[in-house]
């Protein structure tokens, strides 16, 4: 049985990386009975070749409960990203953070202190910002006095980060300077985001360490996707674009991303270290389709 499944993966042209390290405001919707599905279904399926494979999101979490809308680019107060995360953390089940910050063009949220760790599943959807037409319109960057900070730390699992620009987070240790830190629980999705770029997508605004790190038992995550809209661009960071460390982490799918290029794919914008560092079992890079320009 295992051999047949592995053969199917080979015929589908999936590259499986195994074993050793490799470089390469907001009002809640009234009542959960009116819950609406996430506008882009989250189905980060684990590779089918593993007996332990499970759905990326449990059935009970496929529908969104409350939606919190970010209407302010301020760091703190009503209608901010910080307030939305705090509200979502207080509720069980999957919630959603949408954006409706006044103004045209890219809206910048400058953080003075780190955001709360995401401890309850949430969809953070930057594509909801009015005017979105394919390129992210919400930038989250650092402006605090601390010399080390991460943007999103997600331990809840079953969460989504979509359509955002995350940059400028500094490092003063091995655990800071990350745009996204996925830890403890898995089945997360990161898609359609720019990590380490400025709002133009053509110049670097580095995170001080890594674009995305997956660690501590967080597995079955999907980074990117099979369409151009799902593609992440991870470039210009000080060290690695994406790192997956050893431990319980594994069975992640990395698909359709651009590493070390600008957002138009027309110029090299290198990360300071590896584009990929993988030291966990059974991760899949690539798939049967490539992200295509639309």
What keyword list fits this structure?
mainly beta, 22 strands, disordered N terminus, 294 residues, 9-stranded mixed β-sheet
Q: SSE layout and pairings?
A:
Elements: H1 2-11, E1 15-17, E2 36-37, E3 63-64, E4 67-70, H2 81-89, E5 95-99, E6 107-111, E7 122-125, E8 138-142, E9 152-154, E10 160-162, E11 165-167, E12 180-182, E13 189-191, E14 194-195, E15 212-214, E16 222-224, E17 233-234, E18 242-244, E19 253-255, E20 258-259, E21 276-278, E22 283-285
Parallel strand pairs: 4-5, 5-7, 6-8, 7-10, 8-11, 9-12, 10-13, 11-14, 12-15, 13-16, 14-17, 15-18, 16-19, 17-20, 18-21, 19-22
Antiparallel strand pairs: 1-22, 2-3
Short description:
The chain is mainly beta and 294 residues long. Helix content is 6%, strand content 23%.
- Largest sheet, described in full? 9 strands, mixed
Order of strands in the sheet with the most strands? 1-22-19-16-13-10-7-5-4
Span between N and C termini? Answer: 39 Å
Quickly give the structural class.
mainly beta
Structure description:
There is one protein chain. The protein has 294 residues and is mainly beta. It has one domain. The protein contains two helices and 22 strands. The strands form four sheets. The chain has a nine-stranded mixed sheet with strand order 1-22-19-16-13-10-7-5-4, with helices on one face. A six-stranded parallel sheet has the order 6-8-11-14-17-20, with no helix packed on it. Strands 9-12-15-18-21 form a five-stranded parallel sheet, with no helix packed on it. The longest helix is centred in the N-terminal third of the chain and has 10 residues. The chain is globular. The N and C termini lie far apart (39 Å). The N terminus and C terminus are likely disordered.
């Amino acid at each position: 049985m295992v051999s047949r499944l592995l053969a199917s993966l080979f015929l589908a042209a999936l590259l499986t990386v195994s074993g050793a390290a490799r470089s390469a405001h907001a009002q809640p919707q009234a009542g959960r009975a009116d819950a609406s599905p996430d506008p882009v279904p989250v189905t980060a399926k684990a590779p089918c070749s593993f007996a332990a494979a499970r759905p990326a999101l449990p059935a009970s979490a496929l529908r969104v409960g409350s939606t919190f809308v970010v209407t302010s680019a301020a760091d703190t107060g009503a209608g901010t990203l910080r307030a939305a995360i705090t509200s979502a953390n207080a509720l069980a089940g999957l919630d959603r953070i949408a954006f409706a910050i006044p103004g045209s063009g890219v809206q910048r949220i400058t953080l003075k202190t780190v955001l709360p760790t995401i401890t309850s599943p949430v969809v953070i959807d930057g594509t909801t910002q009015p005017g979105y037409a394919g390129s992210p319109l919400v930038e989250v960057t650092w402006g605090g006095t601390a010399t080390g900070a991460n943007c999103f730390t997600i331990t809840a699992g079953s969460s989504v980060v979509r359509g955002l620009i995350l940059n400028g987070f500094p490092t003063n240790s091995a655990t800071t300077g990350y745009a996204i830190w996925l830890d403890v629980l898995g089945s997360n999705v990161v898609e359609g985001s720019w990590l380490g770029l400025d709002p133009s997508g053509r110049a670097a605004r580095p995170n001080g360490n890594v674009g995305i790190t997956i660690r501590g038992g967080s597995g079955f995550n999907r980074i990117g996707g099979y369409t151009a809209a799902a593609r992440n661009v991870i470039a210009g960071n000080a060290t690695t674009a994406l790192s997956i460390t050893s431990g319980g982490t594994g069975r992640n799918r990395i698909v359709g991303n651009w590493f070390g290029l600008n957002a138009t794919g027309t110029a090299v914008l290198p990360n300071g270290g590896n584009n990929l560092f993988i030291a966990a079992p059974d991760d899949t890079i690539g798939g049967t389709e490539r992200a295509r320009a639309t």
